[in-house]
Amino acid sequence: MHVITRKRLNEFAEKHADARTSLEHWYRLIKANRFASFAKLRELFPSADHVGNKTVFDIGGNKYRLIAAVHYNRNRIYIRVILTHRDYDKGTWKDT
């Protein structure tokens, strides 16, 4: 899949160095695969959840959350935001 934008991954990893390895692993897996549906994506990312029109990925053993809009028909994933679990629980990300 084509990831838009990797910049958000790098910026988050600069602030949260312990997330870097997990984010890089997520990025490599996403880039190396093409998913026809959410069901196919869950085969590789079983903890991914569909929340509204976004997909939420657990990163770093559920310490962080990556929220993305996945367009299966266009083979693109748009990273909306990456949050600590505490910030995710506030729910303000739902407006992005």
Descriptive overview:
- It is a single chain.
- This protein has four helices and five strands, in the order βαααββββα.
- It is α+β, with helices and mostly antiparallel strands and 96 residues long.
- It has a single domain (2-95), classed as YaeB-like fold (2-Layer Sandwich).
- A five-stranded mixed sheet has the order 1-5-4-3-2.
- A hairpin with a 4-residue loop joins β3 (54-59) and β4 (64-71).
- The radius of gyration is 12 Å and the shape is globular.
Condensed summary:
With 96 residues, the chain is an alpha+beta fold.
Largest sheet: 5 strands, mixed
How many E strands? 5
Provide the domain count: 1
Query: What is the strand arrangement across the widest sheet?
Result: 1-5-4-3-2
Question: What structural keywords apply?
Answer:
96 residues; alpha+beta; YaeB-like fold; 4 helices
List the helices and strands and how they pair.
Elements: E1 2-4, H1 6-15, H2 20-31, H3 38-44, E2 49-51, E3 54-59, E4 64-71, E5 76-84, H4 85-90
Parallel strand pairs: 1-5
Antiparallel strand pairs: 2-3, 3-4, 4-5
